[in-house]
Specification:
This protein is an alpha/beta fold. The chain has 19 helices and 15 strands. It has helices at 48-51, 57-63, 74-80, 92-98, 119-131, 145-157, 167-172, 174-182, 196-204, 212-224, 240-246, 248-259, 276-290, 307-310, 353-360, 371-385, 393-410, 428-435, 446-453; strands at residues 12-13, 23-25, 69-71, 88-90, 103-108, 136-141, 160-166, 186-190, 231-233, 267-271, 296-302, 313-317, 326-330, 365-369, 415-420. α9 packs antiparallel against α10.
């Protein structure tokens, strides 16, 4: 007598290496109105030559490209195969915990060697710099995930790597520094005494906890100061070419949803700091939305650094010292120094121009959440699904749980997809503080935001 087999929905949806996307997707090609250009100090659009002191020309071409699809070099693909395609998981245990009719999926970017989505662009940037004959890359990092990823990429490409890490994260997350050193990178706390930008900040405030804007200034200064021209700067978020490299995430996700038998996603969620993780998952879905699909795409940021939810769309510089072009973006002002929350990767004053444009056009809706709700959600996720999320990723987890509860209240079946941008195994100090009741929410006052935005009042208006 044969026993009927119960049909089991897939828990882990895996693509083969042959199914990995072979091109990056450029959302700029599909906007209904053109992007505003970055501006130089004279208020005129930046030329490729003006950016060449910081980036190699092959990356500048991608930064300014309007092509919809850009081929991924085989050399880059051969390294991405180490962990890509990454799995899409059905969060069945979380669904049961929430008693929701929604089907919840998460794209697991924690499986990369560096534990996050960051190597998707780190490998590409290191490759293009190597092809251009560059010998050293400098960069900044917040929580340390980008610095780790670039150190990893440079080790594979034979490049030297120097990382300026925001001081508060440098002190909170010592294992990130050790990880960078393991891959051959060097890491210093920012603001540091080794650059003019760092010394200027320390002269005003010797106890400054640092910010990504300060760390960017230091990294750019070191790059442009190399008389040999063999040092360039690499950025882990914000710029167009970084958004481009991450879109492999969303392209894979769409294929995986189809394999799971889902006709469409109803809600797509990602955390948002500078924009790279959000763009990677969401931009391919934005293309569908432009073409008429009904999708809610949510960008989730910390309430302590509410760039999209409380900042204006304006021209601002990307760093503290004015070494970067003026970028059209949602911003809190480049002098804004957020509270020292544990989601260090989301403590940036501005948002990627491509993401900002998508928000302004209504393709993406911004939300903000306090860190205690995020850690509460992360604990529930860890105790049901098993993975300890990065504090940054916990913002997406918390919003996915909100949407799942909403689906239950509405009595609707929905497909909710969120990005698990990284694991939190090197962020356990934050979990310890939460579990011991020593974690608080922070939210800037209107007066604080007004003061920080005063620094952009004389900049050109979009």
């Amino acid at each position: 007598m044969s026993i009927p087999q119960k049909t089991v929905s897939p828990i882990k949806i895996i693509l083969s290496e042959s199914e990995m996307p072979r091109q990056w997707y450029n959302l700029a090609a599909d906007f209904r109105s053109p992007m505003l250009p970055p501006l130089g100090p004279d208020g005129k659009p930046v030329t490729p030559e003006m950016m060449s002191a910081i980036f190699p020309m092959n990356l500048i071409e991608q930064e300014m490209s309007s092509d919809r699809w850009i081929d991924i070099p085989e050399e880059v693909l051969s390294i991405l195969y180490k962990w890509r395609p990454s799995p899409l998981h059905r969060a069945v245990a979380l669904e049961r915990l929430l008693d929701t009719p929604a089907r919840i999926y998460y794209k697991n970017e924690s499986v990369s060697p560096a534990g996050s989505h960051k190597p998707n662009t780190a490998i590409a940037q290191a490759y293009y710099n190597k092809v251009a004959g560059i010998k050293k890359l400098t960069t900044e990092t917040g929580a340390g995930q980008w610095g780790s990823a670039l150190s990893f990429a440079c080790s594979l490409m034979g490049l030297e790597c120097k990382v300026y890490m925001v001081k508060v994260s440098f002190e909170q997350k010592p294992f990130r520094k050790m990880l960078m050193q393991t891959w051959g990178g060097s890491c210093v706390a920012s603001p540091s005494s080794t650059t003019n930008a760092g010394r200027a900040v320390l002269a005003k405030d010797p106890n400054c906890p640092g910010s990504l804007a300060i760390a960017i200034s230091e990294a750019v200064e070191e790059a442009v100061s190399d008389p040999t021209g063999k040092t360039k700067y690499a950025l882990g978020s914000v710029l167009n070419h970084v958004m481009l490299h991450q879109t492999i995430i969303g392209q894979e996700t769409k294929k995986q949803l189809a394999l799971a038998g889902e006709k469409k996603a109803d809600v797509v969620i990602a955390c948002a700091g500078g924009g790279s993780n959000l763009a990677g998952l969401a931009f391919p879905f934005c293309k569908d939305k432009i073409e008429g699909a009904q999708i809610d795409i949510l960008a989730v940021e910390p309430s302590s650094c509410p760039t999209l939810t409380r900042g204006p769309f304006a021209y601002d510089i990307g760093d503290m010292s004015g070494m970067t072009p003026l970028l059209p973006m949602y911003t809190l002002g480049h002098e804004f120094i957020p509270d020292t929350i544990h989601a260090g990767g989301l403590r940036y004053h501005g948002m990627a121009p491509l993401v900002s444009k998508a928000v302004a056009d209504g393709l993406i809706e911004p939300r903000s959440i306090g860190q205690t709700e995020c850690f509460e959600a992360a604990i529930k996720f860890a105790r049901s699904e098993g993975i300890v999320p990065a504090p940054e990723s916990s913002h997406a987890v918390a919003m996915a749980m909100r949407e799942a509860v909403k689906a239950k209240e509405e009595g609707k079946e929905k497909v909710i997809v969120f990005g698990l941008s990284g694991h939190g195994m090197l962020d356990l100090v934050g979990y310890d503080k939460f579990l011991s009741g020593n974690l608080q929410d922070h939210e800037p006052s209107p007066e604080q935001l007004a003061r920080s935005l005063d620094c952009i009042r004389n900049f050109p208006k979009p």
